[in-house]
Please model this.
Amino acid sequence: MAPPKHRRPGFSRRAQYGLFAGYVIATIGVVIALAAIAAWRLDPTGFALVRGAALDATAPLTAAGASVSRGLSDMGAEVGAYWNAGARNRQMTQEVATMRSALVQARAARFENARLKRLLKLVDRTPETIVSTRIIGSTASGTRRLATIAAGSGDGVRPGQPVRSGEGLVGRIFETGRGAARLLMLTDTGSTVPVRLARNGLPALVTGNGDGRLRVRPLIAGENPFRRGDLLLTSGTGGLYPPNVPVAVITGADALTPLARPLADPDRTDFVLVQAIYAPEAAAPPPGLPTTAGTAGAP
Amino acid sequence: MIGRQPAGSAHRGALIDGQAPKVSRFARAVPPISTVLASLLGVLPIVTDAPTIPPLGLLTVLGWRLLRPELWRAWMALPLGLADDLLTGQVPGTAMATWTVIFLILDIVDERFLFRDYMLDWAIAAVAICLAITAGLLSSGQHIAQLPLFMPQMALAILCFPLVERICARIDRWRLQR
Model:
């Protein structure tokens, strides 16, 4: 390949000036861009308007393609389902039998729970659902794990609100446009959720690992209390997430900080509920993306 | 080579040499538009919980820049990067800064390696991709210790680059034939 010509403007004064001006503009542009990054890290709300507008502009495009890609990903699951239908059937029949007795116990427990709460005059809130909507996309090539939903500030969605699906917690809203919003998924390295072990109520923190898994840190020193298959529920501590929403299942319990898999797979989740901040007087989530803890995230 | 332009080397080089540009307005608009469209592919409804999809806007901009060094001045990366930032939801200014710095570095590279072959182009693109992904990681407030998470994406992006450059070359031929 021959060298390009335009970098050697020759004797033409006009061309020399033009080349120089190009480099000056480029350098000024880089400085402005770096200033924009710094400004965004300090105060992300300053860019909310223009980013919200861009989000709104691309949302219809994303939504239009959503059904196609979902259909394709479902097709793989359908084929897989036929493959081991018999074994699944047997396993599920067994599960239903065990679940039935568990359900009766749960009903009794719920009744007793309500009675005891009345006795204690305990104030309990039910989380208010703002809107139910669809996940329409994510920034698959970006460095943060963000997903886009098809409802925005026009529907009452505000930054900080928790988002859950039928399976479990998905994440929390981090920026909004008029008709679309971005949510920070649980698996992002900046997301931290206070949880407790469903088995014995031990408190822990769940942090995103960035690769689709979660890292669990017990809040109590001592032996590793987690077992493989343990269920983690939100504890409601901090006031942002409502309590008792399923979050994750422990998959590896041998490591110092065990790993967990989120229950709500954002790949398969289509409908999600945006809920009001559980105790707004207690929770004031900082705007924008949280930064990652320095040494903690080393895989 | 004196007095004779290589085929298709129109654009700015020709303008500076004192000749009239031979390329239509449409043909000039095609490379930036294709880059923005590639950035837009990033908002396709693919929900993943790990960074997997290669940054297509970056790949396309590199493809055009390495294929046709005379096509764009370095500042052209600013508007293209801004569009990419807004469309892909990155921290505003990330692609603007990294792409422009990459263009400036490539200007120096153009001076140093006067005759480049395909493998060298690929190697340059690989370095640029690694730089850009690392910069995106740092600008979004993550720690450098998270870099291993982005290795698969980097590898995939580097492997995809020849394909993207091939597509750029195909578009280039199409736009200049019109």
Residues 1-20 of chain B have pLDDT under 50 and may be disordered. The longest helix of chain B spans residues 151-177. Helices of chain B lie at 11-16, 25-41, 56-67, 77-88, 94-112, 118-139, 151-177.
